[in-house]
Amino acid sequence: MIDDDDIDEHELREAEALARALERGSATDELPDDALEAAALIRYSRDGGALAKGREDVLLQDVLAAADRVGRREARRAPGWRWLFGALGLAAVTALLFLIVRAPEIPAPTALPAPGPRLLEIELARLEDAEAEPRFDSEMRAYRGEVYAALEARYGAR
Distance (Å, rounded) from C-alpha 153 to C-alpha 151? Predict the structure, then answer.
């Protein structure tokens, strides 16, 4: 058995912390881990971990009060961040709208003239007869002239 004279100040604080942990169901930093584990086993062996209705109500009030404190603390800090994110979002939307409105209009593709059936017939004849080559060159020059004229009409002269 231990005499009361043999208990020092540190052991007395640990015993008080253990008593509070057993009573309240919560531990502080001054409670040693082995004592906390022993207290948890003792509590569990008594009632299987079930809480009395009165204890549930007290714990619920403690949890709600802690959540309310955290919520108030977050509410004090949140508006600055909300305004910052709101301002950044508004600036991004404004910049995007500015870019969309100021974007140059994409020109429609230039409609080039299709090669006529005469050019295609001469090209086929050129494959069989080498004498069709000058006629093909003449038709091809005419077709290139049409293409260049269409490009110049669309984009202007060089």
Answer: 5
* pTM for the whole structure: 0.33
3-state helix, strand, coil in the chain (%, to 5): 75, 0, 25
How remote is the C-alpha of 144 from its chain's centroid? 54
The token pair at 106 is 């994409």
Residue 29 to residue 26: CA distance in whole angstroms: 10
In a 10 Å sphere around its CB, with 0-12 CB exposed, 13-18 middle and 19+ buried, how is residue 14 labelled? middle
pLDDT exceeds cutoff 70 at 1: no
The token pair at 101 is 């409105």
pLDDT digit string, tens, across residues 115-127:
888 888 888 888 8
